[in-house]
Amino acid sequence: QVQLVESGGGLVQAGDSLRLSCAASGRTFYAMGWFRQAPGKERVFVSGINWSGRSTDYADSVKGRFTISRDNAKNTVYLQMGALKPEDTAVYYCAARRLITTMTAADYDYWGQGTQVTVSS
Length: 121
Description:
Distance between the termini: 40 Å
Shape: globular
């Protein structure tokens, strides 16, 4: 079993930066993903990282602006978000699954409760 708790969300202005954290308890040899869901829209992939941290993936919409990383000693995954845009506004969720990351939410076994990110123009 893995329990995930996100933190770091908030209200920022366009162009600002924000760092999300996802603290995991339980087994840590999992690939981790960040997803986001805007009101009335489906949950979509943002970024993923394998258990070693050596392999990462990003959605095209965030490439060059967001960076995912993990500190396995702290059982924590981070999402550093820069140059934020109003369209980045959403609830951000972290998720865990065995082996490699995928871009499909249904492939993930464990989810956090989400943290709200709101970017004003």
